[in-house]
Specification:
four-stranded antiparallel β-sheet
Length: 230
């Protein structure tokens, strides 16, 4: 089975009754590019993190290609890649080459083969020649591209990108956006960039822990703008 399903999924912090992070939600996500938009604290990042088990549902089930995330977490995370707003949250190795190689450790057991594969990955994302550079000396755009390269090197079938352009200038935002929209993988994009959201096939507006609009991306953006001005 392809696609992602949320079946009556809700999220509440343990031991609380009044605080709700996500109200009961049922969705089927099959479109190539899906945006999640809404105010800060609305629950959209929680919804995104449910898709690969970074957040566990309090009730309901999350299925990825027919696999229950709660029962098959490791396999789901192989299929669903996740990138954070701040790439520093996932760049853990000293150099760019080593960081990508870390993602390839299961695919290439031989170190020399792994490093050769990592160099090929870096080149394919416009990072050729930066392999020996410290991840801390890279520009913000380069770090975000490196984080994406490390995740995509494992060839997931879905990429969840949580506000990937928020910390970037206009030039690098466009560079990352062009990469994201050129992917063959299904893309679930959490973003405050409404122009970027409008390029998706479908968008969900999340507000106060609920999905309050679900439809074609331009219509969702229009709904959110009307909601924000009210």
């Amino acid at each position: 089975m392809s696609g992602i399903e949320l079946l009556d999924v809700s999220v509440r912090p343990s031991g609380t009754e009044d605080l709700v992070i996500l109200e009961p939600t049922t969705l089927t996500l099959t479109e190539q590019r899906i945006a999640l938009i809404g105010p800060n604290g609305s629950g959209k990042s929680t919804l995104a993190r449910l898709l690969n088990g970074l957040v566990e549902p309090t009730t309901g089930r999350v299925l990825v290609e027919g696999l229950d995330v709660a029962d098959n977490g490791a396999e789901v995370r192989r299929r669903v890649g996740f990138t954070f707003t701040d790439p520093s949250a996932q760049l853990v190795m000293p150099t760019a080459l080593e960081d990508v190689a870390l993602s390839l450790r299961k695919r290439h057991r031989n170190k020399a083969d792994r490093l050769d594969a990592a160099r090929t990955v870096l080149a394919s994302y416009g990072l050729d020649g930066l392999g020996d550079h410290s991840v801390h000396t890279l520009s913000g755009g380069q770090r975000q591209l490196l984080a994406l390269a490390g995740v995509l090197a494992t060839e997931p079938s879905v990429l969840v990108a949580d506000e990937p352009t928020t910390l970037l200038d206009l030039r690098n935002s466009r560079r990352v956006a062009d990469l994201l929209f050129g992917l063959t993988q299904q893309l679930v994009l959490v973003t405050h960039d409404l122009e970027l959201a409008a390029r998706c096939d479908r968008a969900l507006v999340v507000d106060r822990a609920r999905v309050v609009f679900d439809g074609p991306a331009p219509d969702a953006v229009a709904h959110y703008l009307e909601m924000a001005s009210g």
